[in-house]
Amino acid sequence: MTTFDDAVEAMSRAPIGDSLSRPFLDLFPVSGVSIATVGPVLGSETLTATDDTALRLDELQFDLGEGPCWDAMRTGSPVLVSDARASSSAVWPTFGPAIVDLDVQAMFVFPVRVGPLQLGAIDLYSDRPDEMPGEAVVRAQILARAVSRAVLRHTLERERRDNNLEVEPVGAHSRRIVHQATGRILVQARVSADDAHLLLQG
Questions:
Q1: d(CA 40, CA 53)
Q2: Which one of 3.40.50.300, 3.90.76.10, 3.30.450.40, 3.30.160.390 gives the CATH number of domain 4-160?
Q3: Three-state helix/strand/coil letters over the chain
Q4: Could you identify which of 3, 32, 60, 88 might form a hypothetical disulfide with 96, taking C-beta atoms 3.0 to 4.6 angstroms apart as the criterion?
Q5: CA distance from start to end of the chain
Q6: What are phi and psi of 109, to 5 degrees?
Q7: Where do the structural domains in the chain lie, given as residue ranges?
């Protein structure tokens, strides 16, 4: 059984796959989880999904251009829908009716972002109407930040690998320059030093 502290420790450097989505199932009373990139920065793609319903929720939101994952990504805040059947159609006129045939009663969606970079969303769904308590929301946000770092790191590594890129030194004072640039990003984007370095690499 995954503990919260173990999950936070492992997830920021975990490979893309079940090791990112599974802890949400272990730690929260939900039925399924998906993690996806959304929008123009990385494109729209499901990175990992625990089941077919979670995957279908992503596909519908990508195709329709609306739904809680888009809202969470744009606002940078969780979107918590305790009774999706009752409220989704009023908020999302095409996505709401599209999920009627799915075994989805509640959705809890968290943004995937590093500083100003809006990368995507984590969709948790339940097969019964439910609310997520405030403490659980805070914990899910902490895990989402760890996932965000893993997604950005994975993207940078894949880009370098696909394009056979190597990081070249920029001169005798390159280390100092990197530290200075990281410091500026840290202040401007209000992120941690590790996240500032990721943003600099990006």
A1: 24
A2: 3.30.450.40
A3: CCCHHHHHHHHCCCCCCHHHHHHHHHHCCCCEEEEEECCCCCCCEEEEECCHHHHHHHHHHHHHCCCHHHHHHHHCCCEEECCHHHHHHHHCCCHHHHCCCCCCCEEEEEEEEECCEEEEEEEEEECCCCCCCHHHHHHHHHHHHHHHHHHHHHHHHHHHHHCCCCCCCCCCCHHHHHHHHHHHHHHHHCCCHHHHHHHHHC
A4: 88
A5: 34
A6: -120, 135
A7: 4-160, 172-201
Distance, in Å, from the CA atom of 33 to the CA atom of 52, rounded to the nearest integer, reads 10
Rounded distance, CA 20 to CA 35, Å?
8
pLDDT, one tens digit per residue, over 52-97 is 999 999 999 999 999 999 999 989 999 999 999 888 888 999 999 9
Q: How far is CA 95 from CA 38, 64, 109, 148, in A?
A: 16, 7, 15, 25
pLDDT tens figures, 124-178: 999 999 999 999 999 999 999 999 888 888 877 776 666 665 544 444 434 443 3
Q: Which residue has the tokens 């943004």?
A: 111
Q: How many residues does the chain have?
A: 202
